[in-house]
Write a structure and sequence with these properties.
Elements lengths: L1 E4 L2 E4 L5 E5 L5 H9 L4 H9 L13 H10 L3 H4 L5 E4 L4 E4 L11 H7 L4 E5 L5 H4 L10 E5 L8 H4 L4 H5 L10 H16 L4 E5 L3 H5 L5 H19 L3 E5 L19 H9 L5 E3 L7 H4 L7 E3 L6 H9 L10 H7 L3
Parallel strand pairs: 3-8, 3-9, 6-7, 6-8
Antiparallel strand pairs: 1-2, 4-5, 10-11
Helix pairs in contact: 1-11, 9-11
Length: 334
């Protein structure tokens, strides 16, 4: 039996199928932790299973990539092109957490509609409504909740009452590794008790934003993950471990932020606030994101010589690519 979602077919799993998204997991994090002997289970799975290195979708942020994992398609199909966007029609800047922006059904919904039991656990609540869109929670076959809001879950909205009490863990601090550990612990308990056909576990990249590969704090996170991976593997699941995006240093050698403030640049060229620069990485989690990311969209005023602005931006050291909207949509499948 196969299930079709967005013109792709997926075989019905013979055992519970689990996809784990380690947010911000640059491959070097795994390499360093394995080298240190802290991830024996992943090292074994890596050696005996299939390993591939893939490019993330652009923008390389949480929402677009989680939804590409969940739908099997790029943003041009599923519609989630950032964590945050500007709507020219309304003049408002809004978060892309609302399912009204989602243009394609998830693989989870397709399996659910085919009769499967589905579980989705996210670290941050911002993804929950998108990943759980289309699931029904009144039939006993779906569970979807976040670590962040685990003490407010209900059967009607999430398929489970007070997930925090159910798991026997307090709601973790949002800026911590504990937020992700809650996801892993919930995944193990769900696999034992709920026995989903399909389960998706997705974490937060607080640790990855804060610590470089190989440092004790980063290695500790991956050592913790490997222990839960061991439990999931022992319970007979088929497991895929992936990431939504990688991670690069955001500071110069002297420790100062390596930042180009494009809004300030365009203010100088065109006048204050004549242009509007949007950073799609923007979300409420400002401690580790700081609303600073490597992808920006700029809305220029009517009558601006776009080609001139593009050439001037290209000349700035540190800016790699500058494209018009149609060019970017084609190149990055937006």
């Amino acid at each position: 039996m196969t299930v079709t979602a967005n013109r792709r077919s997926y075989p019905w799993p013979n055992v519970p199928a689990i996809a784990i998204c380690l947010d911000g997991c640059e491959p070097a994090y795994l390499d360093e932790a394995i080298k240190a002997g802290l991830m024996p289970t992943l090292a074994r799975i890596r050696a005996a299973g299939t390993e591939r290195t893939a490019l993330s979708v652009i923008p390389s942020f949480t929402n677009p990539n989680n939804l590409s994992i969940a739908t099997g398609r790029p943003p041009a199909i599923h519609g989630i092109c950032g964590n945050y966007l500007y709507e020219p029609a309304t003049g408002k800047e809004v978060m892309m957490n609302d399912p009204r922006f989602l243009r394609a059904p998830t693989v989870f919904k397709a399996f659910y509609d085919a009769g499967a039991k589905v579980a989705v656990v996210t670290a941050k609540d911002k993804l929950r409504a998108l990943l759980g869109h289309g699931l029904k929670f009144d039939e006993g076959r779906a569970v979807c909740f976040s670590s962040e809001k685990s003490d407010t879950t209900t059967k009607a909205e999430n398929g489970i009452d007070n997930a925090s009490a159910w798991l026997g863990r307090p709601v973790p601090e949002v800026y911590s590794a504990d937020l992700s550990e809650f996801v892993f612990a919930a995944g193990v308990k769900l696999l034992k008790e709920f026995r989903p056909d399909v389960m998706y576990l997705t974490t937060t990249d607080y640790v990855q934003h804060k610590y470089a590969p190989g440092v004790p704090e980063a290695n500790s996170f991956y050592e913790m993950f490997d222990k839960y991976l061991t439990e999931l593997d022992a319970l007979g699941a088929a497991i895929v471990v992936t990431a939504d995006h990688g991670m690069k240093p955001k500071h110069k050698a002297d420790g100062t932020p390596d930042v180009i403030y494009v809004q300030d640049v365009l203010d100088e060229w065109l006048g204050k606030d004549a242009a509007r620069v949007i950073l799609p990485i923007t979300d409420p989690y400002v401690v580790h994101h700081g609303a600073l990311g490597s992808f920006a969209t700029a809305y220029l005023p009517e009558g601006t010589d776009k080609e001139e602005i593009i050439e001037r931006l290209k000349a700035i050291d540190g800016i790699d690519v500058v494209l018009t909207r149609p060019e970017a949509c084609v190149r990055f499948e937006l």
